[in-house]
C-alpha cells in the first residue's frame, strides 16, 4: 500500500469580503481536490493542542504523528538539525531572521516592515550573517547561515522559556512591546540592537535599497529550543518513507524521525517554488521503494503572512493542478493507495498569522471508492460532515494503520 500526504501549509483561512465572503479554499478553482472530495472522508482535525502556540513546528509534528505535548521542544532545533548542525544536550538554538525594520532612531520604537527582507537571496544573507559573526560571535554564541532570511544561532548552555515573538506575527506593528523582556534574554536584545548598526549601512543593503528592495537591517531572534528525540517513523508505523519540502523545519522533523529527505531543484518555500518537481519527486520515491511520502508546500502560508490574497488563491490552484494533478496520474498504476490532503494550521489573511482553529482534511483510498455527501473540499464542507478528530497526532495512525482516532 502506498501512502501520500499532501500538506498545504497555512492553506485554511476565514471568509474574506474581497473573495465574496468565501475562503481561499472555497474561492479557488481546484477540480482535482473537489472531485476527490465526492469519494473521500472529509472532516475537521485539531492539529494544535490547547495551550501551545500554533506554529508550523507544532502542527507538522502533530500531522506527522508525534504528540507535541510529548515531543515539542522548540522550532529552531528542528531547523538546526536540517542544516547539519551538531547539538549537545545543553545547547539552545534560536531562529535568526534577517528582517527589515523602519529607520526611526530609537531601536525600540521601530516598526516591523518585513520579516523576510523581501526574501533576501541566500548569497546576500550569508555575507550578512558572516558580518554579524565578526562582531557578535563569542564563546557562547555563534550564528549559522541558512536559506534566504532563515538562519540559526547556537547558544551554549543557553536558556529556554524566554517568550520570544515570531517576527511574522507583528508585521506593520511597533516592535516595542514584542522585544525580549526577560532578564535572561537581555543579551539577545543587545545583539539585536547592535545588529542594526552593523547592517544598516552594509554595501549589500545599500545595493538592495538602490534596487528598490527592502534592506536586511536587523536580526530578529526567536523560536528557542533544545534538540528533541523522536521515535523513528518506521518503529511507529512499520513503513519507510520520505519527506519533500523546501523548509528546514520540515526537513528537520524528517531527519529526526528517520525519513528520507528529498531535495528538489527549484524548491523555494514560496509561490515561485517547483510545484510539479515536488510531485514528480514524490512519485519517484514511491517507485523506488518508499511506501509513504510527505509532500509539504509552504506557499499558502507565506501568502497569508504577506496578505497576498490573489497569490494565496493562486497557490492553492497550483497545488491542485501541478502537485495533486500530477500525483493522481502517477498513482493510477497502483492497485491501491491512500491519499491525505490537509493544511497544518490556518494562516488567515485577515490576521497575517497562524491560528489554532481545526483544519479540513480529505482522506481518499482507491479501493474504498464510496460516494459521499460532500461536493467540495473546504472548511465549510468539512464542518458540515460532523466528523472531527480532536487529537491531531492520531491522524497518522488512522491513515496508515486504520486505527480509529474517534
- Number of helical elements: 15
The biggest beta sheet reads: 8 strands, mixed
- Rounded mean pLDDT is 96
Helix content: 25-40%
Low-confidence stretches: none
**In which order are the strands of the major sheet placed?**
9-8-10-1-11-12-2-13
Multimer state: single chain
Rg, nearest Å: 21 Å
Structural class: alpha/beta
Order of helices and strands: EHHEHHHEEHEEHHEHEHEHEHHEEHEH
Total beta strand runs: 13
> What is the CA–CA distance across the termini?
23 Å
Assigned CATH superfamily of the largest domain: Alkaline Phosphatase, subunit A
Can you give a write-up of this model?
With 406 residues, this protein is an alpha/beta fold. It has 2 domains: 2-72 and 230-401, Alkaline Phosphatase, subunit A; 82-225, no CATH class. The protein has helices at 24-27, 31-37, 56-63, 68-71, 76-82, 122-136, 186-199, 203-210, 233-237, 248-256, 275-287, 299-305, 309-331, 379-384, 395-401; strands at 2-8, 41-45, 92-101, 112-114, 141-147, 150-155, 218-225, 241-244, 260-262, 292-297, 337-342, 359-365, 388-389. Strands 9-8-10-1-11-12-2-13 form an 8-stranded mixed β-sheet, sandwiched between helices. Strand 5 (141-147) and strand 6 (150-155) form a beta hairpin. The chain starts with a strand and ends in a 5-residue tail after the last helix.
Amino acid at each position: 500500500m502506498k501512502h501520500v500526504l499532501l500538506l498545504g501549509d497555512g492553506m485554511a483561512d476565514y471568509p474574506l469580503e474581497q473573495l465574496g465572503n468565501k475562503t481561499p479554499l472555497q474561492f479557488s478553482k481546484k477540480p482535482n481536490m473537489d472531485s476527490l472530495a465526492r469519494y473521500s472522508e472529509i472532516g475537521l482535525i485539531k492539529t494544535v493542542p490547547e495551550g501551545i502556540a500554533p506554529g508550523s513546528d507544532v502542527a507538522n509534528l502533530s500531522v506527522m504523528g508525534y504528540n507535541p505535548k510529548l515531543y515539542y521542544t522548540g522550532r529552531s532545533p528542528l531547523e538546526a538539525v536540517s542544516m547539519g548542525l551538531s547539538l549537545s544536550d545543553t545547547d539552545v538554538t534560536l531562529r535568526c531572521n534577517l528582517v527589515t525594520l523602519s529607520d526611526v532612531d530609537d531601536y525600540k520604537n521601530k516598526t516591523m516592515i518585513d520579516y523576510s527582507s523581501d526574501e533576501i537571496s541566500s548569497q546576500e544573507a550569508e555575507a550578512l550573517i558572516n558580518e554579524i559573526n565578526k562582531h557578535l560571535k563569542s564563546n557562547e554564541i555563534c550564528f549559522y547561515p541558512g536559506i534566504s532570511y532563515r538562519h540559526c544561532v547556537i547558544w551554549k548552555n543557553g536558556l529556554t522559556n524566554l517568550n520570544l515573538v515570531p517576527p511574522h506575527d507583528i508585521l506593520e506593528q511597533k516592535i516595542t512591546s514584542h522585544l525580549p523582556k526577560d532578564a535572561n534574554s537581555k543579551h539577545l536584545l543587545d545583539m539585536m540592537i547592535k545588529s542594526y548598526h552593523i547592517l544598516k549601512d552594509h554595501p549589500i543593503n545599500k545595493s538592495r535599497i538602490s534596487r528598490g528592495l527592502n534592506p536586511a537591517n536587523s536580526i530578529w531572534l526567536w523560536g528557542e529550543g533544545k534538540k528533541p528525540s523522536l521515535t523513528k517513523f518506521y518503529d511507529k508505523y512499520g513503513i519507510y518513507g520520505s519527506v519533500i519540502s523546501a523548509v528546514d523545519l520540515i526537513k528537520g522533523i524528517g531527519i529526526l524521525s528517520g525519513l528520507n529527505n528529498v531535495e528538489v531543484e527549484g524548491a523555494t518555500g514560496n509561490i515561485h517554488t517547483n510545484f510539479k518537481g515536488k510531485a514528480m519527486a514524490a512519485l519517484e520515491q514511491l517507485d523506488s521503494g518508499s511506501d509513504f511520502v510527505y509532500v509539504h508546500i509552504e506557499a499558502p502560508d507565506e501568502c497569508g503572512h504577506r496578505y497576498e490574497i490573489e497569490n494565496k488563491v493562486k497557490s492553492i490552484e497550483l497545488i491542485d493542478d501541478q502537485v495533486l494533478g500530477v500525483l493522481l496520474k502517477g498513482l493510477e498504476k497502483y492497485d491501491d493507495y491512500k491519499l491525505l490532503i490537509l493544511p497544518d494550521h490556518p494562516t488567515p489573511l485577515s490576521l497575517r498569522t497562524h491560528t489554532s482553529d481545526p483544519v479540513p482534511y480529505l482522506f481518499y483510498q482507491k479501493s474504498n471508492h464510496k460516494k459521499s455527501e460532500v461536493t467540495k473540499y473546504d472548511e465549510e464542507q468539512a464542518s458540515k460532515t460532523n466528523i472531527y478528530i480532536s487529537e491531531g497526532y492520531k491522524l497518522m495512525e488512522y491513515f496508515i494503520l486504520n486505527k480509529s482516532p474517534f
